[in-house]
Amino acid sequence: MEATEMRTTEDLQMKQLMVVRPRYGELLIQALLGLCAIVSIVTTVGIVLALVEPSIEFFSEVSLKEFFTGVNWAPLFNPPSFGVIPLITGTLVTTFWALAVCLPFGLGAATYLSEYASPRTRSILKPVLEVLAGIPTVVYGFFALTFVTPLLQDIWLVGEGPGVFNALSAGLVMGVMILPTIASLSEDAMSAVPGGLREGALALGSNKAQVSTRVVIPAALSGIVAGFVLGVSRAVGETMIVLVAAGSTPNLSLNPLEAMQTMTGFIASAGLGDQPTGSIGFKTIFAVGAALFAITFVMNMFSIRLVRKYREVYE
Amino acid sequence: MARKVEGTTMTEENQAQVTPMQQIEPQHHADKAPRESLVTVDDVTVKYSGSTAVEGVTFDIATNEITALIGASGCGKSTLLRCINRMNDLIPGAEVTGTINYKGVDLYGEKIDPVQVRKLIGMVFQKPNPFPKSIYDNVAFGPRVLGIKEDLDEIVEKSLRRASLWDEVKNRLNSSALGMSGGQQQRLCIARAIATSPDVILMDEPCSALDPISTGRIEDLMEELKTRYTIVIVTHNMQQAARVSDKTAFFTVNVNEDDKRFGQLVEFDDTEKIFTNPSDQRTEDYVTGKVG
After folding, report:
1. Taking residues A104-116, what's their average pLDDT?
2. Contact in structure between B149 and B202 (CB atoms under 8 Å)
3. Using the beta-carbon criterion (under 8 Å), do B142 and A118 form an inter-chain contact?
4. B30 touches chain A (CB under 8 A)
5. Which residues of A touch B85 (CB under 8 A)?
6. Which CATH superfamily is domain A74-310 in?
7. With contacts defined as CB-CB under 8 Å, which chain A residues touch B125?
8. Which ranges in chain A are annotated with CATH 1.10.3720.10?
9. CB distance from B90 to chain A under 8 Å?
10. Which of A11, A66, A102, B26 could bridge across to A178 with cysteines, CB 3.0–4.6 Å?
């Protein structure tokens, strides 16, 4: 009698703990979220694969040596010439001038917003800065061509000054375009540095500049460099500004006052022309795309290593 | 360079003056020699954005003594401590009235630079906050900020020795300070504070994040440090105040007519008197554990 009673209680407890029915809704949500994650990976892999096949075909016709050491880029001419170096220098020169603008100004803006500005000033300035990130790049391109270039020509003091299409103006405006990205990400990283570290430094008699440069920036370095890498990748990959303002003349030169073509600029202008599928001109686009991808990839790997080496982990 | 030399001589002098006296009669040296006020706090009120945090505090801090500030949470003792090296300047809306004199100079005077004040009045915080740098760089941070470039090794070693940390870390000065235990980190913060040769060290609940053994080590350290420095400590631990301090200030929380809470100093006296024979009933209730 007693035993049966106990048994029943146990059964009852067991029943309360048992699975009533599978939670289909939750499984469905899990599957959908997983799908979202897979889509981005599949897309990336797909892009790489799409680049690889025509690139391999390209390099069966043009030697790697010619492509990477040649100094003359005229793939659509007759006879064609496939030296990619002028496009790479074009990309590097515009990127350099973009960085020359956005690194000091971006870091300066971030330091001001994070360490000096009152909460009220920051609440006004940061959204304004972020609006800059929402301007379409074609607008920046025409801003460079119709405003910055004439301005540079007007204020140029020595020598001839920049031409109508020039790498300098494209690079500077590209720097302005990237500025909010770098400033905003750096500011996030700096604001995330614990206040205790600032107090510690101030209590040792540091002034604000010393706190910023000796404590906050080193501690936020990984976030700052992450923002910076993103900025560089955007500069290297930026198309519209360079297409509009830097011209489309492949030019092996480091002089930013001359017109230049970048890798992205070539891809866009060649892609707009009528290259029959399967022709060497068509494959060239993919080869340049693959080279561009390789450059950004190597740069990202390099910066990740650099950050690991120098960052100060605060937690 | 010049400052460092000056600082060193000053500490040596202090040591010479005080050590023999304390060795003879550590408990009652204050009775024998006239107490020499280093910092005087006179009718200080602190408001945060208009609402009073602590009101009308008056007491004085004597050279080479440990002064403890005790009281329930919200009584304004940390607020008051942070006024002494002008750390409250960093809080928007903080407003300090009354006067705090350091060696006869009004710390809130017009020409006073808070950055300079903090070089002479150092601080150790509740949560150990070593910089994410090497042990060496942590201690050398203050001297470097002061522009000292020579003899850094010597300063670092001396400071770590005084914080009784040298033997534990001498073989890993270049490893990160964050690899240390909490107690070691807090002693590193003390070493970092004394590396700039301050006169006064403010400690804001320095042991509240530490285990009893680390706490004991820091208390022993404070006893050693008071021969060279003047220490003000905020603590929630009444046994700690009784163990380490010479003078105790007891604060309490009051409620004003607008139903707002604010802190007030109830009693300031020799630690022994506060804990054995306080003049105020509220002090007695607090130290005997009836309230709080």
Report:
1. 94
2. no
3. no
4. no
5. 203
6. MetI-like (1.10.3720.10)
7. 196, 199-200, 203
8. 74-310
9. yes
10. A102
Contact A200 B122 (CB under 8 A): no
Is the model's pLDDT at B6 over the cut of 60? Answer: no
Q: Which of B115, B138, B180 to mutate to test the interface with A (most CBs of A within 10 A)?
A: B115
Q: What is the ipTM of this complex?
A: 0.81
Identify the residue among B118, B124, B146, B192 best suited for mutation to test binding to A, counting A beta carbons within 10 A and taking the highest. Answer: B118
Q: How many residues does chain A have?
A: 315
pLDDT tens, position by position, A189-230: 999 999 999 999 999 999 999 999 999 999 998 889 888 888
Please report the domains of chain B, with CATH numbers, ordered by start residue.
38-287 (3.40.50.300)
Phi, psi of A132 (to 5 degrees): -55, -35
In chain B, the residue whose alpha carbon lies closest to the alpha carbon of A313 is B132
A153, B3, B202, B206, B291 from B217: Cα distances, Å: 70, 31, 17, 12, 29
Q: What is the pLDDT of residues A232-271, one digit of tens each?
A: 888 998 888 998 888 888 888 888 888 899 999 998 888 8
Mean pLDDT of A77-85: 85
Q: How far is CA B144 from the centre of its chain?
A: 22
Total beta-carbon pairs less than 8 A apart between chain A and chain B: 71
- Residue B175, phi then psi, degrees to nearest 5: -90, 165
Residue B278 and residue B114: Cα distance in Å, rounded? 36
